[in-house]
Design goal:
By secondary structure, the protein is mostly helical. It has helices at residues 3-22, 28-52, 57-83, 89-129. The chain has a single domain (3-129), classed as 23S rRNA-intervening sequence (de novo design (two linked rop proteins), Up-down Bundle), CATH 1.20.1440.60.
Length: 132
């Protein structure tokens, strides 16, 4: 998936979470969980954009790690909303699926970048070892 498409998916995730949070019942517990979900889900896209502007492979990997954490945290808050009875599971099913896919794609990207980084480090070290 290309950068533009992933940026759009993470933005749509945030917008869908905003709608879900606005539909929560008005009580203290739902407000607290809703605010946490809103914070983490909107952070996914913001941190992905930051990762796209990373200054080095290690910077991008670190920022993608934040994307992974925030998306996983969003899943946790959605699960709490379901298990507490604030939202029926059917209403969050697609949102949970999308968030899980974002986590999976982010993890795959991190693994790919780490492998590339290791390979390029190894090539640099091999070149150095051949210099008299």
């Amino acid at each position: 998936m290309d950068e533009r498409t992933f940026k759009e998916r993470t933005k749509r995730l945030a917008l869908r979470v905003i709608q879900a949070v606005e539909a929560l019942p008005k009580n203290r517990s739902a407000d607290v969980i809703g605010k946490q979900l809103l914070r983490s889900a909107t952070s996914v896209g913001a941190n992905y954009r930051a990762a796209c502007r990373g200054k080095s492979a290690s910077d991008v990997i670190a920022k993608l790690g934040i994307v992974e954490e925030e998306a996983d945290e969003s899943i946790y808050w959605m699960e709490l909303l379901i298990e507490s009875g604030f939202i029926p599971e059917a209403k969050l099913k697609d949102l949970l699926t999308e968030t899980n896919e974002i986590v999976a794609m982010t993890v795959a990207s991190i693994k790919t970048l780490r492998a590339r980084s290791r390979n390029s480090q190894s090539k640099i070290q091999n070149l150095k070892s051949k210099i008299p």
